[in-house]
Amino acid sequence: MAVGPAFDEIMGTAGSRQPRAALAALGDWLDTTDSAELRRRQQSAEATFRQLGITFAVYGDEDASERIIPFDIVPRVFLKDEWDRLSEGLVQRVEAINLFLDDIYGERKILKEGILPNDLIFGNAQFRPEIAGMRPPHGIWAHICGIDLVRTGPDDFFVLEDNARTPSGVSYMLENREAMLRLCPELFRQFRVAAVDSYPDRLLQTMKSVAPEHTGNNPVCVVLTPGHYNSAYYEHSFLADSMGVELVEAADLIVDDDIVWMRTIAGRVKVDVIYRRIDDDFLDPLVFRPDSALGVRGLIAAYAAGNVAIINAPGNGIADDKAIYSYMPEIVRYYTGADAKLPNVQTFRCREPEALQYTLDHLEELVVKLVDGSGGYGMLVGPTASKDEIANFRAALVAEPQRYIAQPTLALSTVPTLVEQGLAPRHVDFRPFVLTGSKGIQVVPGGLTRVALREGSLVVNSSQGGGTKDSFVLMDNGPSQSQAQS
Fold first, then answer.
1. Which of 115, 203, 266, 282 is spaced 20 to 30 A from 188 at the CA atom?
2. 8 Å CB contact between 110 and 331
3. Taking CA 277 as the corner, what is the angle to CA 275 and CA 278, rounded to the nearest 5 degrees?
4. Where exactly are the transmembrane stretches of this chain (predicted)?
């Protein structure tokens, strides 16, 4: 069920038949292109994705290897002034995340000054004491961030969560755009849409910029994958291929005298930068899980010696934690000296007795999440939950309140979406990608829009039946007859 009237990003107010003035051309396109033609184009895109092997695995699902994330043909659109405001807030937030990580693994001033409680850090499973005192090259910890946003009105954007470990989804951003350029070129004649196809180049520039300072002019970069059984393997191989760098697994790397080498048929090659798509637990069996077959023995020693950059830096999971998220307004203010330009969703920390009691008293109205949860798992959406689900969550909250946060159930914005009955509003969220290198922070002018395909659903995660849309960032605030941008 929807919660209150939702703002429709194309049509404006819920139920309106007239699109927002700046998007009138998109409204005309929807009116003049019949549903059968839209469906034909959408099916063509999904067939291409299947041929390319863009699949998403849901662990424990026997059909995981056959599944693609559904694609919707109707784009989501950001006007230029909307995007400019979002970009300012994203740059500020990512700057604060990097300063926070540098501090808690270094001097810990934010703890000494009582801004955060000590146990929030030291009692957190995502805090890695093994790397305390280490500092990544150029002092950058979160090189690639995916900041999940939701919208509730024309000017109301909120951060839902921060992804600073190994944020995924960029391959869908790029492939969705390729599909739209091929299938709906008329939209790119109507609107000046900022390009996203430069992302691999931007990422490679970011990687090279954070290579250890003693590295030569052409640092060797690789993408480290856990292998083809991983649910995001397509993205790993896609990015490596797009950047023109090697895709490697643990067996391809060896550490000798605190230097990382890649085995090749021509002999060893020194590696300077590793974009790892492996969680901390499995990164180095000498430091983290000793039973890991996915990691590289000695990698953390090479990192500590300053001989290799790891993107994103080990230990970043603490910035993903939803209990830490609840303190982000204070964190942003502490490190930047200004209030957060992008606010959080109101959050109740169930570790605090008053917040726990409020949550228990209002479970039917709230969204409750595990602080270390992801993918839509371990979550209660109170207004749509059954009595049994609410009872189970109540028991879990009472038993381990520190593991949960709670938030109001927001009326997420909607975008017209092609469903069986035709076009209908469906709720969306948004993950823009922010790159931080030694030369500064840049926000990619696009991102991953996820859409809840079930009517009334607020859960957009692909593992829970959600789909994706292309995300248009306009280079001005209205339609144009200029040449299309790719």
1. 203
2. yes
3. 120
4. none
Supply 140's token pair.
Answer: 């950058």
- Which residue, among 266, 219, 228, has the nearest Cα to 248 in the 3D structure? 228
Give domain limits for the chain: 21-345+410-473, 357-409
Contact (Cβ atoms closer than 8 angstroms) between residue 225 and residue 251: no
Q: How much is the CA Rg of the chain, to the nearest whole Å?
A: 23
Helices (H), 226-279: 233-243
Q: What's the CATH code, domain 357-409?
A: 3.30.1490.270
Distance CA 472, CA 150 (A): 16
User: At residue 202, what is the residue type?
Assistant: R
Structure tokens at 344: 């959080």
Alpha-carbon distance of 286 to 112, in angstroms, equals: 31
Q: What are the two backbone dihedrals, phi and then psi, of residue 173, each rounded to the nearest 5 degrees? A: -55, -45
E strands in 55-134? 71-78
Q: Indicate the residue type of 106.
A: G
The candidate with the shortest Cα–Cα distance to 246, out of 303, 207, 304, is 207
In the block, tokens 């798509």 appear at: 277
> Can you count the helices (H) and strands (E) in the chain?
15, 20
Tokens 């007795």 sit at which residue?
353
Q: In terms of Cα–Cα distance, which of 288, 253, 290, 293 is closest to 273?
A: 253
The amino acid occupying position 2 is A
Q: Report mean pLDDT in 10-residue bins for the chain, 486 residues.
A: 73 76 92 93 92 65 61 96 97 98 97 95 93 95 97 93 91 95 96 96 97 90 94 92 97 97 96 97 96 96 97 94 92 98 94 94 92 71 88 93 90 92 92 96 96 84 80 82 40
Q: 241 by DSSP, 3-state: which? A: helix
Residue with tokens 């970069």: 221
Residue whose token pair is 């021509």: 266
With b for 16 or more beta-carbon neighbours within 10 A and e for fewer, the 174-208 pattern comes to bbbbbbbbebbeebbebbbbbebeebbebbbebbb
With beta carbons less than 8 A apart as the criterion, state whether 271 and 308 touch. Answer: yes
In this structure, are residues 244 and 472 in contact, taking their beta carbons and an 8 Å threshold? no
